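Morning!

This is the sequence you dropped in the shared folder:
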Amino acid sequence: NMEDVNTLGSSQGWTYGTVDEQFLGKLRSSLKKVHWVGDKGKESLFKSLSKDKSCHPPRKPDVIVFPQSAEEVAHLIQTCAAAQIPVIPRGAGTGLEGGCIAYQGGVVCDTSDLKKIEIDKENMMVRVGAGVKKDELNAFLEPHGYFFGPDPSSNPSLGGMASTSGSGLSTLKYGTTRENIVSLVVVTAQGEILTTRCNVRKAATGYEITQLFIGAEGTLGVIVELVVKIRKIQEIRYAGLVSFPTVFSAASTVVTMMSSPLNSLVRCELLNGEMISATNIIYKTSLAAVPTLFLEFRGDTEAAILKDVADFEALAKANEGYDWTFTQDSQKFDEIWNARRGCYFASMKYRGPEPDLVYISDVCVPLSKLATCISYMENYFLSAGFPCLLCAHISDGNFHAMIPYKLPERARVMELEEKVILGIVEMGGVVSGEHGVGVGKIKLAEAEHGHVHMEVQRKIKRALDPHNIMNPQKVLHLPKDDHKAKL
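The structure's back. Tokens below.
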């Protein structure tokens, strides 16, 4: 799909240096693990790191590096800045918007070797390298009796989670990644190592630099280390399923519940009937193919959990909920959540054994508009002749429509995407709740924010990365000629 690659690879007037022997020599003099695209035996590495988990076309970088420290990242960026070579930060590669694909060429900075973990029990914090994955962190914390709250399905790296402010299944109780980060260590576009703040619970001394880098998707610098909040593990847990006749009635139940949230409810997820069918096939489950809420309750006392369960059941029945299932069985519990976590991959084979490409939306809407918006999106794609597989972090107002398609159908799907999401924006929603912008949602993000807002973002980008080497042409369009005209 070269047309897509060429469009996504547009430099918008910026010119970059050439990766030559001199440049490679400088990199290899200061970094231990440097790989050039012309090196023998590295074809599979470059193929793997030419893409993420999205439907966006791949593009091989010129160089891949695996830094071992913040100092190595600093040397990398100083070398790239001097040569005007783009730097594309990468975590676990689980993104869904092409944010770590090297469409401008240059150097992919893979942070997966940054594996530091240091627990601070007294302050209930942990210092982690950007390459530590969510499940790795929780495996380390569990013997100490702690865990990290945000829970994306894809097991991303902590650096990647910060770069998009990912959230996942437990935002209802624990918040997004943004709310769980205390401080960052970032290497700037000039190759300087910056600590964004002290590790305290609150600070009011100047601009909130930490939040500026969260959600920036590597366009302002490379996150190399994080200090995040941790929580005590609550041992008692229950899982529940409740079926509904329509997506609207399920969403209405959650909207009502959110006006008086249940303290022990950690997860509240919605799958529509088509998504249940898809996960049944892949995960060999036998759930009824109807709109279903997936629930998890956690607490310190069984009595408190059971009260919340009874309150939720009453709300569900008032909104036509039926076929309530409730379990403490750990095997059944894990089967339920594995099916929910596997929605994206289940969607690929919904239409047959040959995997489809999958478009995935990530809108987030006000709770007051939730039932209307989610029904609107489902009906929009269905009326256009595409299956619409829905999974939703429903208590956050954040939902994903997964649309399987073949490559010849791509233009039609993208046309439908633009129309339906602009409709969601008109109803007060946002383009992305957790996946970020990458390359896939730049145009839609501009429509969401408007000209004045986007110009502020562009001014920040130009100030911190004046040569546009940090993950260029991601998150926002940054024409070079437009900058010259304004000067």
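Headline: The radius of gyration is 23 Å.

More detail when I'm at my desk.
O.
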